[in-house]
Amino acid sequence: MEPTQLHYRGGFGWFLLTHFHQFIHGHSWSSPSFWKSVLGKDRFSANEIPDLTGKVAIVTGANKGIGYHTALELASHGCSKVFLACRSRERAMAAIKSIKQELWLRGLAPLPNYDDDGREIQDTDEDQQQLQFLELDLADIRQCQDAAKTFLAKGLPLHILINNAGIGTERTGLIDGIECHMAVNHFGPFAFTLPLVDRLIESQPSRVVIVSSIAHECSVKGGINFERMNDPTLTDNHYVKYAQSKTANILFAKALARRLVGHKVYVNAVHPGVVDTAIFDHIGAVTSPTFGRIFLKLNRLCAMTAERGALTQLYCATSPEIEGENFRGQWFIPIGYRHSPKKQLDRHELQDRLWEYSEQLVASRLANDGKNFLTQ
Ligand SMILES: NC(=O)c1ccc[n+]([C@@H]2O[C@H](COP(=O)([O-])OP(=O)(O)OC[C@H]3O[C@@H](n4cnc5c(N)ncnc54)[C@H](OP(=O)(O)O)[C@@H]3O)[C@@H](O)[C@H]2O)c1
């Protein structure tokens, strides 16, 4: 479809079914920039990604969905190294195989050779490859720190970090005593990102993109329920818990951007759009099977493709406009529009409260001496 399409195509069905709560909030509906993004032309396309030769990027959750297409476009535009930071080597290697085939189809790389079992025959060792697997399980804070250390030990610069991985409506409850959406969507990325900050500073100009969601508008009153976030008896529904974790993403992006203001490290948050991916596959299990079936069918019909869903984060990760306009701690919606998240997220006090809470929680899980990873 052409760039002028209603790229929230079918957004009506989405809002009716799952964003009813958001509809009541009315925040986006009353904003001109939101309507511009719905009705206007795309502000960015994959063709506008500059040459990324020499750049090193990490994309979390790159084995499928929006993250996969993000990694594909970075590699297509010459990014020298793209790390797919994923929890499963098998799934990451399958994604790497598929990206390489796509690069070949685009005439950008030779077709890899495979042995009889379908394994690629490599003529260089893994460290030399453009596309590499980095083991990262965001549900395990210690492993997040180990993943960052593994990357740092390679001695490479880091120009682009895209914290894309996430879970939607899950049944899991608590992971290591932490509400599961907050664990995977916020505390894991926090624990992974902070040890990489010095490397991002050394490699500047560099970018951090934190993938949030417009669903943040449906979070609890006050944005974050610090008192009862990890209380297993809390009866908030799963969507509200997801929304709280997506609120945390924006607060983290804004807090990190403020801490890096003296450096050319540009940190921003995005809503990728309503995208047809696997993220809400479990919705039937946490609502009802019938609702789940209808929802998934409508979502499949109405939502954007993952290719288009990747564009706003690619814009934040690569567009010269970000540096040119000195965009820091901003929030972007499809495709490449700057927009305002909920007003309360601009409060430094709230950003810092989450930062301190996250530092303490991460430190407690690492059972270290509670030292700050990054001081103001
Ligand atoms: N789709 C939408 O409509 C939409 C809307 C707004 C925001 N978003 C955001 O966009 C981002 C990408 O989502 P998506 O739609 O592309 O979903 P997706 O297709 O389900 O992909 C999610 C990715 O996150 C990875 N992941 C999940 N748990 C992980 C863990 N513990 N450790 C490491 N990686 C983990 C998954 O890996 P596995 O394959 O191993 O599970 C997968 O690679 C998420 O942050 C989401 O909140 C999506």
From TrEMBL:
<keyword id="KW-0521">NADP</keyword>
<keyword id="KW-0560">Oxidoreductase</keyword>
<dbReference type="GO" id="GO:0016491">
    <property type="term" value="F:oxidoreductase activity"/>
</dbReference>
<dbReference type="InterPro" id="IPR036291">
    <property type="entry name" value="NAD(P)-bd_dom_sf"/>
</dbReference>
<dbReference type="Pfam" id="PF00106">
    <property type="entry name" value="adh_short"/>
</dbReference>
<comment type="similarity">
    <text>Belongs to the short-chain dehydrogenases/reductases (SDR) family.</text>
</comment>
<dbReference type="InterPro" id="IPR002347">
    <property type="entry name" value="SDR_fam"/>
</dbReference>
<protein>
    <recommendedName>
        <fullName>Retinol dehydrogenase 12</fullName>
    </recommendedName>
</protein>
